[in-house]
Structures are given as C-alpha cells and as structure tokens.
Amino acid sequence: MIDLDLIGKNSRKAFERLSQTDGAARKAATFAIAAELEACADEVLEANQKDIEAAHFTGLTPSLIDRLTLNPQRLAGMVEDLRRLAELPDPIGERFDERTLPNGLRLWRQRVPLGVLGVIYESRPNVTIDVSGLAIKTGNAAILRGGKETIQSNLALVKVIQTALQRQGLPQECIQFISDPDRAIVEQMLRLNKYIDVIIPRGSNALHNFCREHATIPVITGGIGVCHLFVDSDADLEKALPLIHNAKTQRPSVCNSLDTLLVHKSIAPKFLPQVVQYLGSAGVTFKADAQASGLLDDARVTPAGPDDFDTEWLSLMLGLKVVGDLDAAIEHIRLHSTHHSDGILTETAEHADRFIREVDSAAVYVNASTRFTDGAQFGLGAEVAVSTQRLHARGPMGLPELTTYKWVGVGDYFSRK
Question: Fewer CB atoms inside 10 Å of the end CB: C or N, the chain?
C-alpha cells in the first residue's frame, strides 16, 4: 500500500534541499540525467517494448500506442532536449521590476522555485523526462503519476533519473513516481495540499475535469488541442499545402496537430480537392461540412457529425469547413477552439493583425504550422505542459513558468512612518 503522506513529506524535504542549491549544481544534475538516459537506452527501450506489447493486447488505439512508443530516435531526441535545457539560463534568483521608493527603500521581485509539482499524465513516457529535467533545473521537486499503459517505461525512466540525482549528491526523492494505477490514489494526491503546491494534469478532458473537481490544490490545465487553420482568400495555396500537411501528418497523435481546416468560400472549389488529394496520399481521411462535402466527390470524405468540430482527433482525420470570410472563421474558432493553437494563412496584413488580436488562444500563428507549439521548438528546452488557461502561465510551460517570486526590500534600518 502506497503511503502518499510519506511520499509528500519526502518530496517537501527534497525540495527544501534542492531549492538551496546553486545553478551550477542544478545544471550538472540535468546533464547527469541526460548522460544516464543515454547510457541506459537499451534498458529503457526494452521496458517500453513491454508496454507496447501490453497495449496491443489490451486493444489500445493506434494513436495512443504511438504516444507511448519510444524508439532510438525519440530517445536520442529526449537526451538532446535535456542537454539543451541544461544550457539554458537559470531563472532562479533573477531580479525584475527593480525600483527605489521615495523614502529610499529599494524593492525588487526575485524568482524562486514554485515548490512541489504534482504531475498526472497519460500515455507519453517522454513527459517523465521533460518534467523531471525542468523541475531539477528550476529547483522544484515533483511527484509523478503516469498511466498504467506506460508503467514499465516510467519505472525504467524514474530509475535513470534517481540514479543520476544520487550520483550528483542530491536526494532521489526530488523526483518520485506513484506506480499504483488505482484511481483512488489520484484523488488522494489531489488533496495533498500540505505538501504539493500545484497539480498539472496532462491527458484527456476527463482527467482535467476530474482534477478540477476534486483538487484542493491549484490546478494548471492544458494540452487538449482542437487546433484550427484558416486559409484566407489570398493565401499562397502552393505554400499552404505542405504547411497543412505538416500540421496534420507529422505526428497526428499529439495535442498541437491540426484538427480543423477552415477554407474561404472563394477558393474552396479549387483548393479543397487539392487538400484531399495531397493529404489523402498520406492516409488522411476527412469529415466535411455540407458545403465542403458538395465540392468533394471522394470516398475519403464523409459528412461531419454534430460533434466532429469539437473533437481532438489525435489521428489522421481532418475536419473541413467552408467559411464566408474572416469573421466567420474567427466565430467558428471562438465556438469550437480549446484555446491551444490556431492559425491563419493569409497575405493580407490587416487580416493577420485581426486574427492575432481576436483569436484568444495560447498560441496564435500567421503562415506557420500549429506543430510549433512545443517547449523545445520555442527554445524552452522542454515543457511541463501546454497551459490553455489564463492564470500564471499560458502556452508551453518552460523554466520561467515553473517559478514564482518573492518581493525583496532593502533599506538602511528603515521603519514605516
């Protein structure tokens, strides 16, 4: 039986020690995790293969199996991301908003670690490495609870992390993993406010809702992407096709892949058949609204149902909709977006400016793929999550987003009058 209170207590103690280390020690620890992961690649891949075999046996969908799959290339990418993360500037101790009051008191805000992170996630074992690297680099501890579908992978990865921490003279309890798949453990974790400072869920809407409803700890939600691209009447269609192809097919099982393509009515008769032909050759199938369906005579296109434009496909499925103008595109996004990543393809600067101003998403793009919404792509090294809410952090959460601050005041034996 897992003693969650003991896990929390140990995590708090580890945080108190880690938060007092200097930037050089935390940088060295991040590099050490990368080196240990590289050295133990075969063991990690062997553990991951067990999860893949179990996933096939239990009938998980191809998109979920893709999300949990590691291979030498993905593992090498994780190692490289850790090394880039280690080299990034250390935000801890950074001063900002410095000022001197009329009475001579000097004030500034100074970045400090956020505390103990409780991260609950599904399917993707790379999250274990991303969160751990970001936490260690910023002086935070983390309690991780991954899904049962990646249990073997996560146990192997946590062993890598804890071994590296011990070799650096740091407590292995800086990163702890809850291996019990019982959902009751999650509910207990959500009420461990004595030790955990923030809950970060990564997974389905059901997981996010469960955390919001049961937590007595602040929750940062995100990572659910119903992502849109609007192709304006004057878009460069030759350049648009490979961009759309990238947004949909590069890795369809992730939250920043394209879900709905909105096409201006003036170019739809010409452009939609090109989209179906171009993406269809990569295995994409389509759900089209009535107007789009009327322009397409292709077995890969079926009529969209009432909920299809609210669906995060996580697969090689793409919604197609014809819209009358920019106003209609923005209105559709307002009604159906999850505020993750939305973009416009246009040659009209005024339309681009309006889209940026009026579309309320964590990441908004002009003539670029939604696939860029990623901590590594943004130069953050990695991400603990993609926040789609408004408070504290928005978009990919990198190093600065895992800090808070304290006010520091320095006087000459000043007393308030």
Answer: C
CATH number, domain containing residue 170: 3.40.605.10
Q: Which amino acid is at 346?
A: T
The alpha carbon dihedral of 326, 328, 331, 336 has a sign of negative
DSSP per-residue string spanning 24-78: HHHHHHHHHHHHHHHHTHHHHHHHHHHHHHHHHHHT--HHHHHHH---HHHHHHH
173/249 same-domain check:
no
Placement of tokens 């990572």 in the chain:
223
pLDDT tens per residue across span 32-41: 999 999 999 9
Query: Could you tell me which residues come within 8 angstroms of residue 20 by beta carbon, excluding any fewer than 6 positions away?
Result: none
* Cα-to-chain-centroid distance, residue 156: 22
| Residues 250, 396 share a domain | no
Bridging pattern class, strands 301-303 and 285-288: parallel
Mind listing the pLDDT tens digit for each residue in 147-204? 999 999 999 999 999 999 999 999 999 999 999 988 889 999 999 999 999 999 988 7
Length of the chain: 417
Residues 185, 266 within the same domain: no
In the numeric block, which tokens belong to residue 77? 């990418």
Q: Is 403 helix (H, G, I), strand (E, B) or coil?
A: strand
- Show the domain range for 157: 4-223+385-410
